Each structure stands twice: as structure tokens, then as C-alpha cells.
Amino acid sequence: MIYRVVVFQVASWGLMLSASSADMKAYWCNEVFAKLCSMARDMSVKVRVEAFNGLAKMEIVSKDFLLQSLSKRVLGNGKQRETMDQITSEQFTMLATSVAGALMHGLEDEFFEVRKSACQSLHRLTILNVEFAREALDLLMDMLNDDSVVVRLQALETMHHMAINGCLKLQEKHLHMFLGALLDNSREVRCAVRKILKIVKLGDLAMFKSSIDRLLENLDSYLQDEADVFSAFSHLGRNHKKFVGYIVKETFEEVEAAFEGNVEFKSARIAALLIICISAPLFNEYLGIIPPVLFSYAVTLLGRIYHAFSDIMDKDTLLAYLCEKSRPPSDSVPDINHGDGEQQLSLIEGDTPKCASNGVVDSKIGSQIMKEQKELTSYQVEHHQSEYSEVTVYINYILAKFPDMWQMIETGFTNEVLRSLRCLKEELASLKFDSLESRDALAFTLLYFRIIKLLVEVWEHLLPAKGLRSHGLGELEFKLGKLDRRIKELMSKFVGFSGEEELNILELILVTYALRLCKVETICVNLTFKRLASIYSCLESLLKERPVLPSNFVVELGKLLHECQTASINGASCSPLQFDKCLKLFSLKKFVFHGTIRQLKTELSISNNDSLHPFPFVSGLPVSVPCEITLHNIISKCKLWLKMSLDDGLVQYVFLDLDHLEDSGDVRSLVFVAPFYRTPKAHSFTLKVCISLECLFENVCPVQRYGGPKYELVPLCKEKQVYFSNVNKD
């Protein structure tokens, strides 16, 4: 701790002396600055870190010494006129020698803690002198290549601080390094770059276009960044209206071609381009160069883009604003082809201040928006969003990315895909909805995400590059078993599938079973083969009912099954290479969610029971378990079982007969007293109780349980623990 005390005392001593005499303030600050710079080259890492922490507290430093800290070569006396007025040439040389290259040494230090501290010291120092800030920025840009994420983040945080204080002057030479960080592997780094772009003032059109292009690359590479990327586009448009004027013509042509179906509709890219255009006139009543039809297009993507404007308006206000701007002016219709950028800019009064994004919409427009909001909202929402709810549109947007991800998987980029899936799943899991339909849609999508993630992990075992690795039997069997259970849950716990959705899910089940059969180490081959044949029959029946062509994978698998049935052989006689050949033809299809899926679920409650208040029992005699059950979307053909189990593996099933329920509707309640017969010889025991659903879609019975379910079960609620205590404890 001595090093920290010494450095702290040096910094405190200088600040105290500087406050004691106004005339000597600059002199003493330079002395302290030089002392701390000399400590920044100490042999101890901790001393160097604390020295830079001390530099971050400096309030006044002469420009001469600031610039000297960035140069390892001692600058000539002739250039140091400001400082030489206060000290002798000999004193200056001594101080300059101590200061020379201190910050540069810190930024090049081998320890990331020192580099981070050096970046942090520039927080304060860059606002002391504009020339110093300009030269320090060159070094900070180099830090964006640092191996440590912590250092890269600190460098960006310092730049953000400079932007807030108006001393961040980005130049063309900085753009490659700065915008390249938008593709950094670290989500925090990418977010920090966008945070700067939201407030920085770009100097020319080329820099503006480069920023747009890199943000679009960011959006394409990291789907999970969409909300913040859209927000960055919104701020860019608000703060650079003149530059928007230059690009509006080409943007309009691209957006119009996409909406008319002339080119591929890349919804994320189109939404981003719309955002930057519609954000430009937010602080002006009239911006004639923006075609009204762009605002109309934006209305159709309201659910995707409204988060980009959440800092200044809510969703309803944005809708009203878009509807207002989509009306052409009564006196004339703007022509976006009337000339080049210079002519277009005459309609714009000027750019907003760099922090204008934190303001509010012009009061006159705001009052008009609020006035017309009620009459506009009803019509526009019905017209543009009647087919799908906002939740359905968002889910379909995410699911549409899966086929592209699958192409990456086939080329070996499984880690990148898994990372994207993980981030998207986290974002989905954070969403909260009020309606039951939205919650059901979210539950389905999250389960589908888990299935695709498991499928990717299992698929790694088929890739040639991964085949060289040593995978244990347990690992693969565990993942295949988990994938099997998750798909059974998807097929059993949700109802209301369209034919297209059911075909998609059945094909995933076929892939799961084919994966089992192509790995020679998997067990229960005959049972898996029977299941595969059963699911294929279901899929074949659906295909006959619909004019849909089967995939190459399904066609090849059908041929293989036909060969096996013709030869009267079972799954064990089929070569794993035959199934491997089929799997190589598989490609993940685009899943379109139609919004009609409902989740089957139950709620189980055991009243007046916990570890402190157990139910009494007598060993060897049956006990009753009073269950309060709520059923959601459970139909009469569902077979529900109450599963009760002990820690020693003993399981008892009780069938829940739903035919006697008097209630009707999507939500029904009942009270059911379940008997448990085989109470153990113990002072106390805990019974685990769960409501499960029998999987009826597979016409294959793996096990025959006496008095229990024929087919496999999937749980419909969380397992409850019921506590019992023996009345005879002697």
C-alpha cells in the first residue's frame, strides 16, 4: 500500500499548493504532472497504475507538457514560450525529461491494467487542450486493436467523454479503425462505438456514408444488436440532416424497389434506411426532400422501428407523426429527382446541435400530433397490422434468419451461430407480454430456439473438421436425448399448428432420429427406427393433403425406408452411412409463425404444506395428496397423468379423467385428491408431484407400464414437493 500512499500524496500535495496561490497555480501543477509522469515509468506495475490514476485528477497542465507526454523526444525550448515565462530553461529541461513520452509509454505497457489506467487518464487531460486532444486521439484509435477487451472499452469510454465535451474530432484516417470496432467480438465494445456515433459530429459526407455502411454490416453480422443499431441510425439522421439530403434519392430507390418486390426484401436493412430518413425532419415542421411515401412505408414496420425513437416519443406518438408526414403538402408534391445535393439542401435550415437527440419534438408538431392521434391510430393499425400482431412479426423476423445461420453451420462456423443464438435467446427471454396469446408465442419460440441450439451442437459431430476431435459416448448420447425430449415437448405441449408448421416440426423429428441412427454408438436402434418410420408416415400423409414438395432430405429418407421395408430388415441392419448420406441433404427451412399456436400447460398447487408443516402419514398405509389444478388450453383428447415419485426411484402414476369436468373454456380448474400407496418406512419423506402429458403423436410404445401411460410423458408444470412426517416416530 506504500506505493498508493506516495502517489496519492504527490497528487494531493500538488492540488493543495495550486489552490494556495493563483499566480503559482500553473507552476505547481506542472511540477506535480512531471512527478507523476516520472512515476509512470516505475518498475512496479501498481505504482504505474496509481501514477496514471493520479494524472486523471489533474486540473491544470501547460500545453507544452501535455504535448511532451505524447512524445518520447524532448521538444526544443524555442517552442515552449508559455512555460518558459514561468521557469528557467534548465528547470524546463528537467521537467520535460520527466514528462517525455509518459502517456505513450503507458499506452504501450505490457500490462493491460497500466494501459487501461493510461487511457482513463486521458479522460481528464484531453479536455484541457484541443491540440493535445487531437494528437491523443491518434493513440486512442490504436488502442482499439488492443488484445484486452477492458482496454478497448476504456479507450472508447474516453472517446465518448471527449465527444460529450466537444473535443472529439474524427478524421478520415480514424474511420477504418473506429468503425471497424462495430464488428468486434465483444458486444460491449460494439455498443460503446454506437454510443459515440449517437453524439459525434461527422465532418463530411464520406464519413457519414462510411458510418452507415459499417452500421449495416454490424446489423447483418450481429442480429442481437438490432435495437441499438436502429437507435444509432435515428441519432445519425437527427444530427446530420444535410447529409441525409444527399443520400435520400438513392435510399428512396432502394426502399421502393424492396417494397415493390423488385429486389430481395432485407427487412433489417430497409428498416434501418427508413429510420435514418424519417428521423431527419423530427425537429423541423417541413423537410421537403423526404418523400411522404417513405413515412408510409415506415408505418408498416412500426413494431420494428419504434424503439429507435423511444428516447423522445412513445409508440403512439411515432405512429401519429408518421401518418402526418405521409400526407403530401397541399401546395405541391416534392420531387426527389429535382437536382443534386446542393439544390436539395436549400429546404433545410441547418443541422441540429450534436446533443439535439436529447431534446423534444417541436411543440407545434407535438400538439398537432396529439390532436390527431386518436383518429389516426385506429385506422392505421387496422390497415397495416391487422394480419399479424407485433409479437408475431418480431418472432417471424428472428426465425427468418435461421436458414442463413444453417449455411454458416455447414461451413463450420458453429461457434459464431451458437453465440448469436444465445444472445437472441437472452433478448427473447427478457421480453414481457400481457396477453396469453403473446406469452404462448414467446414460449413456443424459446423452445424452438433451444431445439435449434441443440441441433447445432449435435451437428458438430458430423462435420469433417470436428470429426477429428474425441467425443465421448456420454456427451453425444446426452445431447441426442435432450434434443429428442425438447422436440417431443414442442410437438406435444403446443396445439393449433398450421400444416406448414407441422411439416417443419415433423422434419426436425426425422432429423433427430436420423442423427441417432447414423451414429453407431447410439443404443436402442430398433426402437429409434420404428419411431422414424412412424413419423415419416405422418409427414407423408400431410404431404398428400397439401400441394407442397418435400425437401431433398425427406425424399432420400423415404427411399431408404422403402428399401428397408422391401428387404424386411430392421434399423440395426441399415448402415449408418446411409443415414449420413440423407443428413447431408438436410437444410433448415424457414419457419413462418402464423400466430395461432396455443400452449398446453397446467398449474399445480398443494395447500397448507411445506417442510415446516408436513402432512402426517403411517408407514405402509396410503396417503392422500390434495391437488389444486388449473388447466390451460387442455382439450378432451389429451391424456394427463399425475406422476408421483420418491428419491429412491419409485414412481406411481394416477390418470386424470377430464371427461367429468363440468367447466368449459380455455382455462379450467379442479380439485383432485390423489392416493399414494407405497409409503416408505421412515420418519419422514418427500414426494415429488408433477402433471405430465402423454405423447400420442408417435404410434410406438417404448415401454409397457402396468397401470400407467403407454407412451412417453412430457411435463406440463414445475415439479412440486409434498412433505410427510410419520405420526409414530418412536
UniProtKB/TrEMBL annotation:
**Protein name (record):** Integrator complex subunit 4/Protein SIEL C-terminal Ig-like domain-containing protein
GO biological process per UniProt: intercellular transport
The record ties this protein, via Pfam families, to: INTS4_C
Q: Does the keyword Isomerase apply?
A: no
Show where the Integrator complex subunit 4/Protein SIEL C-terminal Ig-like domain sits: 608-726
Compartments where located: Nucleus
Q: Where is the signal peptide?
A: 1-22
Source organism per UniProt: Pisum sativum (Garden pea)
Q: Could you give one GO CC term from the UniProt record?
A: nucleus
Do you know which InterPro entries this protein is assigned to?
ARM-like (IPR011989), ARM-type_fold (IPR016024), INTS4_C (IPR057412)
Q: Which UniProt keywords apply?
A: Nucleus, Signal
